[in-house]
Amino acid sequence: MRHVTHFIDGKPVAGSSGRQGPVFDPSTGQQQATVDLASADEVDAVVASARAAAGEWGETAVGRRSQVLFELRNQLRSRSDELATLISSEHGKTVDDARGEVARGLEVVELACGIPALLKGGFSENVSTRLDTYSLRQPVGVACGITPFNFPAMVPLWMLPLAIACGNAFILKPSERDPSASLVLAECASDAGLPPGVLNVLQGDRLAVDALLAHPGIDAVSFVGSTPIARHVYETAAAAGKRVQALGGAKNHMVVLDDADLGLAADAAVSAAFGSAGERCMAISVAVVADSVADAFVAAVVERTGRLRVGPGHLDGIDMGPLVTAEHRDRVAGYLDGAAADGATVVLDGRHHPVEGDPGGFYLGPTVLDHVPTTAGAYRDEVFGPVLCVLRAADLDEALAIVNASPYGNGTAIFTSDGGAARKFQHEVRAGMIGINVPIPVPVATYPFGGWKASLFGDTHVYGVDGIHFYTRGKVVTSRWPEAAHAGVRLAFPGTGATEPAGGAGGR
Ligand code: NAD
Hints:
- The structure is a single chain.
- The protein is globular and about 85 Å long.
- The chain is built from 16 helices and 23 strands.
- The protein has 2 domains: 2-12 and 40-248 and 456-472, Aldehyde Dehydrogenase, Chain A, domain 1, CATH 3.40.605; 252-444, Aldehyde Dehydrogenase, Chain A, domain 2, CATH 3.40.309.10.
- It has helices at residues 40-59, 62-78, 80-91, 95-113, 115-118, 154-165, 180-191, 206-214, 227-239, 262-274, 291-306, 326-339, 377-380, 396-405, 419-428, 464-470; strands spanning 2-4, 6-8, 11-13, 20-25, 30-36, 123-128, 131-139, 142-146, 169-173, 199-201, 220-224, 243-247, 252-256, 284-290, 345-348, 367-370, 387-393, 408-409, 411-415, 433-436, 452-453, 456-457, 472-480.
- It is 38% helix and 22% strand.
- By secondary structure, the protein is of the alpha/beta class.
- Strands 15-16-17-14-13-19-20 form a 7-stranded mixed sheet, sandwiched between helices.
- Nicotinamide-adenine-dinucleotide binds at residues 146-151, 155, 173, 175-176, 205-206, 209-210, 224-226, 229, 232, 247-250, 281, 382, 384, 410, 451, 455.
């Protein structure tokens, strides 16, 4: 059976803890590999490797770092089909969908190639007589990234290109459910000329995570995953004095007003609810639809959903693959058991949808629930599966109140032909990512990504300018090179436009 190892100091390293976990092929239900699960001692070793590499890498000329990133981009592009096939085989999503995630991850590598420009500081000449002030940003040291199963290449690529480009060493702790993509990323980085130890991959579960969060050799923690774990990561790492960004779960609402193009809205709802079997942090799991068009909208959604082909993600023409594990499939199916008792109307039950492929696969077809009360489990919880809840609202104000009452605030969307309504929505809605006639608003790499409320703990989003700030510390230097005799000791605090600056102990 295939064995998924760590990647430390530029090479694959088999685990020494004796702990391993299974990696399944979700389309057959069979185990296809074992993955090493690190012990606390292995965490110590990987942090030591990263710390040893961080110093020299942080001193490496920024232009050289940029060249390595350019080469990383080439390596990843040349292996993107292999990566997509591997992701599909462990996650279950279609190969086409996996190609999309690799492409979105590559955008962040391309952003990081521009690191010489991104790290430029500011300079103010003559803030006082012969006194200049300037700012610069330096690497934090060693950062780690703890990532979820649902984007095994894209989410690590939200983090590691910028962390490395900024001059840090980076330890990736991928999901133990689909760990193999992480090794391809590390091989590409190594082949691109990244020095050993600057990017290490440590396979593991909660034991490895907790050891990383407590380790004094880790300076910054980036996390993406479910809300309870995001909260735990944020609280634990912050208490240990680290900077943390912890992105959590989601319950993304899509509002459909009565003037929306219903065909466009239905296409968007079906694509965003059932793409990747609903296992996306930007999946639409709730549609809040204007009363007057709700029946027509539901009919259009059901008509499209009924045509979806469910089966193994590597087969041509398949729209939706299996869920990631049997436990997860059963948990999602459990919401269908309770839906009617909770007061919802089960319009399409995914348990009866035809499936092409091995009956042992972790399949669940697309499900549509209508008239869902906000008290229903399927509405309240992050289901993270192919289940679309439809709620009805009298007008935009009522729809906004429903969206804003959700404890989550990752993303949301509005479908309308009224620019004024769209503007009111974007202004008043409490979420980080907003789509206007667009269902999954994952932005381009030049704009940061992140949510509000229980969807993000910490104050910086990932990548974009936020990524640069997160992976660097700022310095502001105030400098004077005396040309002639200085003014001597002066204890008074200098006012604006003072002709002579304060001495060393002064400040402005
Ligand atoms: P998860 O929270 O179960 O796992 C995420 C990571 O945390 C994994 O590396 C896992 O090994 C580790 N982990 C799991 N349990 C732990 C514990 N008790 N203590 C310490 N570490 C632990 O998430 P998942 O199921 O892999 O991914 C799906 C979740 O991720 C969904 O909630 C989804 O919304 C969220 N997600 C959010 C975003 C975003 O941008 N906000 C993006 C992708 C996924």
